[in-house]
């Protein structure tokens, strides 16, 4: 009990919260960018109106499949060590965001494509028969219905993204887990309390995201 009290002193908690804030920053930026890019890639992946769009869809599909089958840790290493070799200088924060966005965009693109495919094809046909263009029908009729179907899968991806930020510890990103490691490396008796504190903080942010997604889903259905 004494070790627990000492481990969770205000100084240590403040240090953990600094790392927690970095985790939140990386997560929020990555979620926003990956959703936007993933939505665009998913639409391109689904669209096959003519020969040109079919070719583009296939190329995008190959790129998405390659990224989805690579370990996230490898993408993090490439972002941090590989990009500087190509002349693109990035720090640990930027490299982490780039890696998360690249990996999650590919995952979300498939979620978007699956969500669109889950919508009754008659919705598109009905919109087109009423004079809408393909993009108008997709934007105003199909996509809103698909998004409601995507919420559980998107939530799962976003929660995974938040937890995957801990992998950036390997490139010395000063996020939550990295700060916890610094604390318990000074006193190994603090290891269990630090892991418990980290678990609670991850649970808070993931549970908050889950609750918001459930609320949003109910509001949209209503």
Q: Secondary-structure blueprint of this entry?
A:
Elements: H1 2-7, H2 10-46, H3 51-68, H4 72-85, H5 92-117, H6 121-129, H7 134-164, H8 176-186, H9 191-221
Helix pairs in contact: 2-3, 2-5, 2-8, 3-5, 4-5, 5-7, 6-7, 7-9, 8-9
* Number of helical stretches of at least 4 residues: 9
Structural class: mainly alpha
Number of β-strand runs: 0
Low-confidence stretches: none
Major beta-sheet overview: none
What is the share of helical residues?
over 70%
Binned strand content: under 5%
Gross morphology is elongated
Overall pLDDT metric: 85
Order of helices and strands: HHHHHHHHH
Radius of gyration, in angstroms, nearest whole number: 21 Å
Calculate the terminal CA-CA distance, rounded to whole Å.
49 Å
Detailed description of the structure:
By secondary structure, the chain is mainly α. Helix content is 82%, strand content 0%. The chain has nine helices and no strands. It has helices at 2-7, 10-46, 51-68, 72-85, 92-117, 121-129, 134-164, 176-186, 191-221. The longest helix has 37 residues, at 10-46. The N and C termini lie far apart (49 Å).
């Amino acid at each position: 009990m004494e070790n627990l009290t000492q481990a969770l002193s205000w100084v240590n908690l403040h240090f953990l919260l600094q790392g927690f804030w970095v985790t939140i920053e990386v997560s929020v930026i990555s979620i926003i960018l990956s959703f936007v890019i993933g939505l665009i890639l998913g639409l391109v992946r689904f669209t096959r109106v003519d020969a040109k769009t079919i070719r583009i869809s296939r190329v995008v599909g190959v790129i998405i499949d390659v990224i989805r089958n690579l370990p996230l840790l490898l993408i993090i290493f490439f972002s941090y060590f590989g990009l500087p070799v190509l002349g693109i200088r990035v720090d640990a924060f930027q490299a982490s965001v780039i890696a998360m966005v690249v990996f999650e965009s590919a995952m979300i693109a498939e979620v978007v494509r699956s969500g669109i495919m889950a919508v009754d094809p008659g919705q598109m046909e009905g919109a087109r028969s009423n004079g809408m263009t393909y993009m108008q029908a997709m934007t105003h009729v199909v996509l809103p219905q698909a998004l409601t179907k995507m919420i559980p899968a998107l939530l799962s991806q976003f929660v995974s993204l938040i937890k995957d930020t801990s992998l950036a510890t390997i490139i010395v990103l000063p996020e939550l887990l990295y700060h916890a490691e610094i604390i318990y490396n000074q006193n190994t008796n603090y290891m269990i309390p630090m892991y418990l504190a980290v678990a609670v903080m991850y649970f808070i942010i993931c549970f908050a995201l889950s609750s918001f997604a459930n609320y949003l889903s109910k509001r949209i259905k209503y």
